[in-house]
Amino acid sequence: MHYHAESYGNYNASTVRQNAAVDPLERVVRLASGSAVVIFSLSTCCMCHAVKRLFCGMGVNPTVYELDLDPRGKELERALMRLLGDGSAVPVVFIGGKLVGAMDRVMASHINGTLVPLLKEAGALWL
Description:
By secondary structure, the chain is an alpha+beta fold. It has five helices and four strands; from the N terminus they run αβαβαββαα. Residues 1-21 have low confidence and may be disordered.
């Protein structure tokens, strides 16, 4: 199977070739494309809780996938680690089907003012 992501910051769900319906990376891509804002999380993770609170506090209603509550969550977590290229798999945020990244990238985007335009472009925020 061949997967292609142009770069970490520009990863888009449409860049992955679909080869097998059960492939964890394909499932991540499909889930990430299903809503304007998607968060892959663990229900017991404090950083995941913080990122969910950030979006809810902004008036955004993200779709959240709790990997520890999914029977195939470990597979998805490994696929997310491959996408991110580092040791931490959660939280991982997609906006408009595009990978934003883990908590550090989300917070950096929030601080530098690029998060709100992304949310507006994806249709997750109107104000």
